[in-house]
Design a protein that fits this description.
By secondary structure, this protein is an all-alpha fold. It contains 24 helices and no strands. It folds into four domains: 133 residues, Alpha Horseshoe (Serine Threonine Protein Phosphatase 5, Tetratricopeptide repeat); 108 residues, Tetratricopeptide repeat domain (Serine Threonine Protein Phosphatase 5, Tetratricopeptide repeat); 41 residues; 103 residues, Tetratricopeptide repeat domain (Serine Threonine Protein Phosphatase 5, Tetratricopeptide repeat), CATH 1.25.40.10. The longest helix has 20 residues. The radius of gyration is 23 Å and the shape is globular.
Length: 492
């Protein structure tokens, strides 16, 4: 069997095409990898009902192309990304539908799911309380066997980072529709957010074993890519998402997966490939804000700071996300533009607090913000509570770093180890996580391990942060004058 970077056997094949008897179609991945560059998987998956493969009559004229509302309905009810104008058209139609038929449970469920999808596209969390009301009304109209409303509530809980609720709703939805693939991806997201990577992998295995129509396979491959990335299987993650991008059926879906491929390329430090993918995603869907952010990030890494600042502003105009605002603030700080940085830090806090008022759990973001640019003790308090609720790898890394910034390096190492040790978490190859652990071990005078972690961070992505990549290099320079200490047992 083929080997991946970490030495494990390749876990399976792409779902890009269903091979006919005696005619394997392995050309799809080879073709795409020849023309496309090597990037987080697509955004939160929204699911209600599966899409069936159309039965074509060769004697009939082709059906007319679906309109905006039909495209958005197909996307929202099958778990693929939808274009923002199409979502708006669908929401307008569904609002009229529920006014005309207030007891129509499915109409309310579709409306709620569309609100969640729009919130994910725009970062406007004010759509989420609307989604809550719509989905709750759907359940009141049909209290039993309402898989549509349960799937919508799963997506809503994931969007709010309430992964315990997402797990609860997702397991109920899956119990009702175990043979329908759209029930699986949001449950995988919930397990991942809770740090239950074993459950996430088992759920993916069940999803991959289902027979899915060709039109649905790109969404399945995108979900597989996200799980493979979390396991550190970067080549497999890239192959799955690259195939998904070429097989996707709409420009919005293609753009989302291209942006994901670009992100995977960025995480590997492959800036040219990342920029190519982000440019293609923006060509396909100019409203694809994640591609705009990725482009800004890659331009900054190239030293094209003026272009990067413009790209950040353009992306934030489309999607005023608190995480991206924090990223822009750190770029300003790296350029010694202190006043601009402080303004963006304040804006990031304001945006996070507004989102929290609409029900989104923002403790992870606010904890990161306080750890590096505010009160580290407040960060520790926030992140301890968050880790107790949802002990995923991202939260473990943030808590360890907050403890380090608060001067508690011995305790910090426990969480930093959990975030970087594949036996204790997801195994994702993250330059930032390696950097955090390396700096903690440096403070503890564990120089051998610290050097390995910092070198690995720069090997994974030499430009992982405009603030912290230079810090990693400076610390390695300091350690060149220091004798190595013993390697920790987990390194051995």
């Amino acid at each position: 069997m083929a080997k991946r970077e970490n030495g494990d056997a390749r876990p399976g094949t792409s779902l890009a095409a269903e091979p006919p008897p005696h005619h394997p179609r392995r050309w799809l991945r080879r073709t795409l990898l020849a023309v496309a560059a090597a990037g987080a998987a697509a955004g939160v998956t929204l699911t209600l009902l599966p899409r069936e493969a159309p039965q074509l009559d060769p004697h009939r004229s082709p059906a007319p192309a679906p309109g905006p509302q039909a495209r958005a309905l197909a996307a929202v009810t099958t778990g693929v990304p939808a274009a923002l104008p199409d979502l708006t058209a669908l929401i307008t139609r569904q609002e009229s539908a529920v006014r005309a038929r207030p007891a129509d449970a499915r109409a309310w469920a579709v409306l709620g799911a569309a609100y969640v999808a729009r919130a994910n596209r725009t970062a406007d969390a004010s759509d989420l309380p609307r989604a809550q009301r719509a989905l709750g009304t759907s359940l009141k109209a049909r209290a039993t066997k309402n898989s549509e409303a349960l799937a919508g509530l799963t997506a809503l809980a994931n969007a709010r980072r309430d992964f315990a609720a997402a797990k609860r709703y997702g397991e109920q939805a899956l119990k009702l529709t175990p043979k329908r693939w759209p029930a699986y991806p949001p449950l995988i997201d919930a397990y991942t957010g809770l740090g239950d990577y074993t459950a996430a992998r088992k759920t993916l295995d069940k999803l991959m074993a289902l027979r899915t129509a060709p039109a649905d396979r790109p969404a399945v491959m995108a979900r597989a890519s996200a799980v493979y990335r979390d396991r550190g299987w970067r080549e497999d993650a890239m192959a799955q998402l690259t195939d998904a991008a070429v097989a996707a059926g709409t420009p919005a879906e293609q753009a989302a997966y291209r942006a994901g491929v670009g992100q995977l390329a960025w995480e590997r430090g492959e800036l040219t490939d990342a920029l190519d993918q982000f440019a293609e995603a923006l060509r396909l869907d100019p409203a694809e804000a994640t591609a705009g952010v990725g482009r800004a990030r890659a331009l900054a890494a190239r030293g094209r700071t003026a272009d990067a600042l413009t790209a950040y502003r353009e992306a934030l105009a489309k999607r005023p996300d608190a995480d991206v605002t924090l990223e822009l603030a750190e770029l300003y700080e790296s350029l010694n533009r202190t006043r601009d940085a402080e303004a963006q830090y304040a804006l990031a806090r304001k945006r996070a607090e507004k989102s929290a008022s609409d029900g989104v759990d923002q403790d992870l973001l606010l904890g990161r913000l306080e750890a590096d640019h505010g009160d580290p003790q407040e960060a520790v308090t926030r992140l301890r509570a968050e880790y107790k609720r949802q002990p995923g790898v991202e939260v473990a890394d943030a808590l360890g770093w907050a403890l380090h910034r608060a001067g508690e390096d011995k305790e910090a190492l426990k969480y930093a180890t959990a975030a970087t040790d594949r036996t204790k978490g997801g195994g994702v190859r993250s330059a930032l996580h390696d950097f955090h652990r390396g700096m903690i071990e440096y403070e503890l005078k564990r120089y051998g391990s610290a050097r390995l972690q910092l070198e690995d961070a720069l090997m994974v992505n030499p430009a992982f942060s405009p603030l912290w990549a230079p810090e990693a290099r400076a610390t390695l320079q300091k350690m060149s004058q220091v004798s190595d200490g013993p390697l920790p047992s987990d390194m051995l």
